[in-house]
């Protein structure tokens, strides 16, 4: 990837450029905390923090970041929902503008402290579509604890356990990781399957609640966040993998260790164990502090948007609406081979694996994501999989959505329409965008210049009338006149309502459902985000599809969906909208970012079919019909879970 550290410096004041210069000329390697750890795949968290905290706060950079973040929030569809708490989700009130003002006026000891505070603020919204990612520090040093945890039911009682497959799982990280613990004399292997009674002086479940509320983010429902704390299985890069979970694998190196009170397997008395974290480096190569900044922190050619009308090869830049968790470099490991399904796969790809269970009447589609490498191949695979099931006389369909991070909106709508049949009608949600003054100018400029949906998400022909599905004409301004609603005492202005335009698809859609919809069921751990949340909610609202969620904690409520906004725009996407329409120079528009970062936001709202004034994100009534705790047999064994289901 091409980097533009010098160009970024040219945009800044003399103090910023002299800051970079002083690092390279006055700091010797013996005093440089970044040089000390350069080239090491794993480092103690304290040494990682020393490197990250070595850059002093630069006011020019802070003001640049704060301008961009503040103005991006002008487009955020859910801002006013945070003015009061939502107890059903365990979501506290967050006054976003007051908090931004606080951060803008706070004195910080380092650039890292400023960026971490801003990250924590946006992360506290628990909306994975809306997060600030400072790539200088986020997902750079992932803390890994050799004791991932999960909630299991054993002999009728639920408790927190260190994962029983610990030895196989952690060993997959390689000798660099295990050798460190051997060098300090820490035997992590003996913790496999241990029951965890307390963590950091509080009950294990209480500590998990703290992690769910302060670390996890992503999902507005507290119960769903709890499941993200546990280690769990997933499809990643076409293979079965195991997550560390947010307790054992946080993306900042904030903690040096965890103190656990555990009952080891076959022990009769508990003991207290201090388990050290080790931070894994996931960023770009560096040799010292200046090179770390240049390769990880300075704005690069993927930071800010482009004018899609003039940049070569940019015409396809706005062709696919996405609703997806942010892709992270966070590390897990391949699922131990004994836990990988031993059934013959009827199809497999980077995001979807399918099987026929031994009862010969149940087909399984494990959909790990709606963001495949090839959209057309995914569509064809789904159609082919269902055809194979039908030819084998399969009558029941089980869809596993565990840890599905979402993806392309139209792929979720495709799976729904293929299962419901073309006779069902529109397979998505009615939705809107926020109608602020700058959005109004973007749409007006797109119309005036004849900009179409190949170049802009705001272009009218990206959307359709919600009455008949006819695509908007190129000249239809769906922002003006706008509509208003009152949210928590504040007047909220949004566009007119519209539908997605997804069809036609490159396969024939069956007119009638290929399976009786009463015989279709969904299983997951609730970590079903974005497009996945929209798909599962559509199945639930429109067809009363049975959904079973596994995990959680005893006596805790949990949704079957994670974040359920309609579409996310990354900063690059929004900035490209501004530049393509020609309104980037408007006083309301945010400037270019001068650092390597992203501020993504929920750009569209999807409204529930059961309550057309409530976004599906805020429907707290959407509980799964079935809840099951994990057991030693099902917690990391997809095939055992499917057989149980």
Structural description of this entry:
By secondary structure, the chain is an alpha+beta fold. It folds into three domains: 289 residues, no CATH class; 141 residues, PDZ domain (Pdz3 Domain, Roll), CATH 2.30.42.10; 157 residues, 2-enoyl-CoA Hydratase, Chain A, domain 1 (Alpha-Beta Complex), CATH 3.90.226. Helix content is 29%, strand content 19%. The chain contains 18 helices and 30 strands. It starts with a helix and ends with a helix.
Helical residues, percent? 25-40%
Shape: globular
**Biggest sheet details:** 7 strands, mixed
| Whole-number count of domains | 3
Radius of gyration: 25 Å
Low-confidence stretches: 1-27
**Order of strands across the widest beta sheet?**
15-16-17-18-25-26-30
Number of helices: 18
| Oligomeric status | single chain
Overall structural class, as computed from helix and strand content, comes to alpha+beta
Q: Strand portion, in percent? A: 15-25%
Extended strand count: 30
Residue-averaged pLDDT, rounded?
A: 93
Distance between the termini: 45 Å
Quick overview of this protein structure:
Helix content is 29%, strand content 19%. The protein has 645 residues and is α+β, with helices and mostly antiparallel strands.
Strand and helix map with partners:
Layout: H1 5-10, H2 14-26, H3 33-37, E1 42-43, H4 45-52, H5 59-72, H6 96-105, H7 111-123, E2 132-134, E3 141-144, E4 149-154, E5 157-162, H8 166-171, H9 175-183, E6 195-199, E7 202-203, H10 204-216, H11 222-229, E8 233-236, E9 239-242, E10 257-263, E11 271-276, E12 278-281, H12 289-297, E13 322-324, E14 333-334, E15 345-348, E16 352-356, E17 362-367, H13 375-391, E18 396-400, E19 406-408, H14 409-420, E20 430-433, H15 437-449, E21 463-464, E22 483-487, E23 490-494, E24 499-500, E25 520-524, H16 531-543, E26 546-550, E27 567-569, H17 571-581, E28 597-599, E29 601-607, E30 626-628, H18 638-644
Parallel strand pairs: 17-18, 18-25, 25-26, 26-30
Antiparallel strand pairs: 1-12, 2-28, 3-12, 4-5, 5-6, 6-7, 6-10, 8-9, 9-14, 10-11, 13-19, 15-16, 16-17, 20-29, 21-24, 22-23, 27-29
Helix pairs in contact: 6-7, 10-11, 13-14, 14-16, 15-17
């Amino acid at each position: 990837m091409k980097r533009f550290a010098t160009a970024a410096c040219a945009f800044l004041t003399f103090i910023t450029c002299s800051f970079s210069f002083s690092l390279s000329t006055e700091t010797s390697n013996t005093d440089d905390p970044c040089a000390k750890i350069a080239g090491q795949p794993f480092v103690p968290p304290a040494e990682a923090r020393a490197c990250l905290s070595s850059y002093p706060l630069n006011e020019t950079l802070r003001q640049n970041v704060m301008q961009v973040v503040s103005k991006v929030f002008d487009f955020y569809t859910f801002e006013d929902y945070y003015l009061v708490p939502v107890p059903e989700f365990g979501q506290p009130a967050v006054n976003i503008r007051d908090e931004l003002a606080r951060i803008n006026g706070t004195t910080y000891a380092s650039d890292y402290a400023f960026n971490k505070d801003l990250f924590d603020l946006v992360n506290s919204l628990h909306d994975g579509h809306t997060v600030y990612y400072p790539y200088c520090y986020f997902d750079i040093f992932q803390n890994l604890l050799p004791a991932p945890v999960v909630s299991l039911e054993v002999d009728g009682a639920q408790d927190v356990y260190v994962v029983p497959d610990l030895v196989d799982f952690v060993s997959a990280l390689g000798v660099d990781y295990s050798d460190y613990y051997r060098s300090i004399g820490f035997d992590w292997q003996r913790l496999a399957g241990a029951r965890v009674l307390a963590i950091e002086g509080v009950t294990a479940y209480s500590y998990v609640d703290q992690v769910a509320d302060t670390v996890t983010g992503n999902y507005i429902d507290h119960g769903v966040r709890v499941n993200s704390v546990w280690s769990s299985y997933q499809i990643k890069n076409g293979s079965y993998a195991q997550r560390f979970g947010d307790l054992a694998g946080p993306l900042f190196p904030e903690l040096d260790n965890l103190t656990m009170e555990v009952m080891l397997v076959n022990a009769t008395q508990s003991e207290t164990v201090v388990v050290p974290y080790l931070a894994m480096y996931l960023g770009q190569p560096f040799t010292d502090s200046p090179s770390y900044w240049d390769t990880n922190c300075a704005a690069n050619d993927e930071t800010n948007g482009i004018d899609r009308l003039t940049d070569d090869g940019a015409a396809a830049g706005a062709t696919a609406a996405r609703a997806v968790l942010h892709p992270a470099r966070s590390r897990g490991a391949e699922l131990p081979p004994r836990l990988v399904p031993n059934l013959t796969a009827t199809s497999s790809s980077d995001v979807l694996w399918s099987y026929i269970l031994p009862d010969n009447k149940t087909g399984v589609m494990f959909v790990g994501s709606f963001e495949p490498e090839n959209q057309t191949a995914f569509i064809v695979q789904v159609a082919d999989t269902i055809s194979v099931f039908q030819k084998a006389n399969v009558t029941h369909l089980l869809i596993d959505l565990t840890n599905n991070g979402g993806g392309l909106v139209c792929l979720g709508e495709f799976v729904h329409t293929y299962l419901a049949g073309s006779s069902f009608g529109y397979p998505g949600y009615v939705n809107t965008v926020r109608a602020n003054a700058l959005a109004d100018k973007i749409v007006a400029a797109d119309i005036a210049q004849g900009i179409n949906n190949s170049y802009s998400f705001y272009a009218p022909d990206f959307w359709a009338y919600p009455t008949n599905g006819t695509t908007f004409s190129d000249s239809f301004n769906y922002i003006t006149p706008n509509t208003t609603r009152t949210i928590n005492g504040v007047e909220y202005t949004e566009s007119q309502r519209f539908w997605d335009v997804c069809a036609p698809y490159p396969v024939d859609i069956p007119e009638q459902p290929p399976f009786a919809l009463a015989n279709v069921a969904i299983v997951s751990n609730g970590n079903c985000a974005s497009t996945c949340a929209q798909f599962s909610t559509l199945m639930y609202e429109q067809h009363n599809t049975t959904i079973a969620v596994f995990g959680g904690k005893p006596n805790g409520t949990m949704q079957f969906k994670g974040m359920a906004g309609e579409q996310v725009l990354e900063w690059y996407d929004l900035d490209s909208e501004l530049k393509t329409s020609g309104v980037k120079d408007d006083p309301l528009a945010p400037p270019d970012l001068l650092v390597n970062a992203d501020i993504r936001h929920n750009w569209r709202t999807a409204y529930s079919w059961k309550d057309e004034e409530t976004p599906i994100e805020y429907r707290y009534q959407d509980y799964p019909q079935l809840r099951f705790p994990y057991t030693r047999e099902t917690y990391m064994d997809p095939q055992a879970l499917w057989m149980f289901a």
